[in-house]
């Protein structure tokens, strides 16, 4: 009899839970919906801080990379932290934190870095400005504030003062140019012009 009473009590408990649990679940769901209806959209957590209107007005590319081959067979790679394409005809594309790598057919590598750059697609010229630094695998380093590049001819010129260091010492000049050797053997010529001063420091 005791076992029978225990079984009947268990059955009543199970039957009560079958009714109580669904009702409890419905109560929780109704509470959830009531609370959700009172959410203030002004205090909702934003999903992004991106200014969409700014992106539409001023489209930009993040970490773009451009690679190509120049007329004399050298390879040129351009990278930037951010670039903004020209939005109106006649205006140049711009970029910040720019790195250019020029590798000649003979394997000579030249790395050029600058704070900013502007590209004129019509003339295929690139102007690098702000802490321009040129590092050559031939152990030469050149510093200047502005450098103009003719991408078609892979030639670089600076019309502002430059300072260069290398195995023979330090050179300062009013301007400089870095261009392919006319002999066409894949080498480059670095030429200094205007009040050139050499401090000879042989090693």
UniProtKB/TrEMBL annotation:
GO terms for cellular component: plasma membrane. The chain crosses the membrane at residues 15-35. Keywords: Membrane, Transmembrane, Transmembrane helix. The keyword Transmembrane applies. Gene3D superfamilies: Lipopolysaccharide (LPS) transport protein A like domain. One of its GO terms (molecular function) is lipopolysaccharide transmembrane transporter activity. It comes from the Bacteria. This is LPS export ABC transporter periplasmic protein LptC. It comes from Paragemmobacter aquarius.
């Amino acid at each position: 009899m005791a076992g029978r009473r225990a079984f009947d009590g268990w059955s009543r408990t199970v039957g009560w839970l079958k009714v109580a649990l669904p009702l409890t679940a419905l109560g929780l769901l109704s509470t959830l919906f009531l609370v959700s209806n009172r959410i203030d959209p002004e205090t909702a957590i934003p999903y992004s801080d991106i200014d969409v209107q700014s992106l539409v007005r001023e489209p930009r590319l993040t970490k773009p990379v451009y690679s190509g081959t120049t007329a004399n067979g050298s390879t040129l790679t351009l990278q930037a932290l951010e670039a903004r394409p020209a939005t109106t005809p006649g205006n140049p594309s711009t970029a910040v934190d720019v790195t250019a790598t020029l590798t000649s057919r003979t394997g000579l590598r030249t790395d050029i870095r600058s704070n900013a750059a502007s590209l004129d697609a019509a003339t295929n010229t690139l102007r690098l400005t702000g802490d321009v630094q040129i590092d050559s695998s031939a152990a030469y380093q050149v510093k200047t504030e502005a450098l103009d590049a003719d991408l078609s001819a892979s030639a670089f010129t600076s019309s502002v003062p430059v300072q260069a260091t290398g195995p023979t010492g330090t050179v300062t000049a009013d301007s400089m140019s870095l261009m392919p050797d006319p002999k066409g053997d894949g080498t480059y010529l670095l030429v200094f012009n205007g009040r050139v001063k050499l401090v000879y420091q042989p090693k």
